[in-house]
Every structure is written in structure tokens, then in C-alpha cells.
């Protein structure tokens, strides 16, 4: 992978965790995922090519778009990226211009918009890019921690005031962040 993408620093994707159906209609509308056909909490995750998780957003309602989450999560910040960095993402992350402002390059699989078929070279490159992304990003996190299988009870999804940190935070966000931290720990420690 280093040969193909020598400046690759992040592989990004969003993943969803099933949550109980909220009783309030407005909350249900914000959390319903057309992709999963269920109510979900959605997270942006970034992994280093070696597999370590380098960024994890707070949870968003399943209806939020990948683009919205990237823009609102703080990931589009010069503190996370340096000029020349490459970021690998799925085709839903139409953020090339946003990353270009930071001097970084967003790499996405080719897609057929406006064309009947991709040229053979583009098909192969897209397959390789997609396989790398899928292989690394989410499987480790969701595969190891079955608490993330859901559905998560609504009492853990609702934000509550954290008096020590003086901010609103949902218990589900704390759970997901602890799971991510454990993924990053060496197996001898865990």
C-alpha cells in the first residue's frame, strides 16, 4: 500500500450502530438511516494505513450525510493534516475541494457518473482502493466489541451534561471511544 499511496495518512469512512427507536418523531427522523433501514448513531472514523484509529467523531443521527459529518466533526482541520497528505475515502465523500484547501489530496474510487462504463484501468484501481479501505477501517472495531452490535438503549444515546468536562456528551459516544482506544492498545496490554 505504501508503494501505491506513498503519502497516505488516513483512510476514512462512516459506520453506524443500531439504536432503539426514539419515541419522539423528530428524533426518529434524525436517526433513521435509509442505508440500514433502522435508527442508528453514525460515526466518522479515520485509520492510519497500519490500522490504528487516528480520529473518531462524536455520534450523529443516522440520517446525517458523510459529507456533513466530516465538515462538522473537526476532521477538516490543519491540526490533523499536512500539505501533501493523501486521504483514502469512499465515493460518498465528495470533499476533494475541502481537503485541497488544506493542501491534502482526497483519493476515491472512480465512479461512472456521466459514463456508461469505466475504462479497465479505472476499474482495477477502484477495486484496489476499495479493498484497502474496507479491509482496514471498521471491521476491527465492530468485530471485537459486540456491545456495538446494538440496538443501544435510548438512555445511553441521549446527551447528558458531563459536570467534570462542562459539556454535553452521550454515553454511547464514551463507549465507542473506549472501544477505539482498546483497538489501539497492544494485545499484550489488553
UniProtKB/TrEMBL annotation:
InterPro entries for the chain: HARBI1_dom (IPR027806)
Pfam families reported in the protein's UniProt record: DDE_Tnp_4 (PF13359)
Residues spanning the signal sequence: none
Keyword terms of this UniProt record: Metal-binding
UniProt cofactor(s): a divalent metal cation
GO molecular function annotation: metal ion binding
Domain DDE Tnp4: 12-184
Protein name per UniProt: DDE Tnp4 domain-containing protein
